[in-house]
Amino acid sequence: MLFPTTVAGSLPKPSWLAEPNKLWAPWKLSGAELDAAKLDATLLAVKEQEDAGIDIVSDGEQSRQHFVHGFLEFVDGIDFNQKVEMGIRNDRYKAMVPTVTGALKLKGRVHAAEARHARAHTTRGLKITMPGPMTIIDTIADAHYGDRVKMAFAFADLLNAEARALADDGVDVIQFDEPAFNVYMKEVSDWGVEALHRAIAGLTAKSAVHICYGYGIKANIDWKQSLGAEWRQYEAIFPALAKSRIDQVSLECRNSKVPMNLLKLLDGKDVLVGAIDVATDRVESPDEVAAVIAEAAKYVAKEKIIPCTNCGMAPMRRDIAMGKLKALGDGARLARAKFA
Ligand code: ZN
Question: Please, which pLDDT band fits residue 21 given cuts at 50, 70 and 90?
């Protein structure tokens, strides 16, 4: 089937699980109740994606509070009480981040519960996302390794262990989120791709990397306004990704100033074409989604196009996010009819 749809990763959480409409939303429950509620929300997220016409569903990231820290919580060697102020994404915003104080080691499985629960309840393709090594080290201070690349490779080895275990759980696509790739373009070819290769070594599932311009929060919207009339960051990093062993690349296209002809640089890869803008509450029409797909098809073989959202939808109003998922499913159907 042409144009199978997927999502970048996160979906809003139900209001009985976490406070709605925000990043870092506090949980509403604790202990065993919270664990059970996370799985209930995962099942809902899967069902809602199926009903919207999403072909490769995710767990909606219902079990984690934040896309980076949801992983870090499971890692030994990090002192969460030793917080340092750090300028994140080349100083786009400041955050208080925890510190690596010893050798990094996984405490155990990270996403086993939600991955297995989702797998047990859907026959569709299943994707689980994790933060990429470069994005992780851009979100944490180092008092142990003394070398950012060395620390990134240490994280990549942990990601690899979890990725392989997820593949054994029946997950079809493992995606690494690397918004930092759009900021440290030179480092992507210097070591960023190599770190991803470590993260996917021996992986039997498909691998993907998601590179966006961030959630629709103010710091990101201001940053986008500083990038000029054409966003050409992808031009600097796509050649290295095209040569890489990563199977799929997920991008922001809808309402973005990325020149679509840059997609040609990803020759040979599956391209997850962002056809839904997550920075606006306006729900796209299926025709608008189909138009983004048609535009991408000028530069990417149509068999390689996977319509997707621009980024995660965690901080969005739930009804709006659901409307957007349905527009994505309906738009892909329209495009299928047009290109059949
Ligand atoms: Zn994103």
Answer: confident
What is the tens place of the pLDDT at every residue in 260-277? 999 999 999 999 999 999
Query: Using an 8 Å Cβ cutoff, are 213 and 251 in contact?
Result: no
Query: What CA–CA distances, in Å, run from 200 to 70, 165, 173, 203?
Result: 19, 12, 11, 5
DSSP codes joined into one string, 221-287? HHHHHTS-SS--HHHHHHHHHHHSS--EEEEE-TT----GGGGGGGTTSEEEEEEE-SS--SPPPHH
* pLDDT of the residue at 18: 96
C-alpha 321 to ligand 1 mean position (Å): 15
Residues in the chain: 340
Mean pLDDT, the chain, whole residue set: 95
Structure token pair of residue 21? 């409409």
* Centroid of ligand 1 to alpha carbon of 307 (angstroms): 15
Tell me how far the alpha carbon of residue 304 lies from the centroid of ligand 1, in angstroms: 20
> What residues does each domain of the chain span?
31-339
The CA 311 to ligand 1 mean position distance, Å, reads: 4
Whole-angstrom distance, CA of residue 183 vs CA of residue 10: 22
231 Cα–ligand 1 center, Å:
15
Domain with residues 31-339, CATH architecture: Alpha-Beta Barrel (3.20)
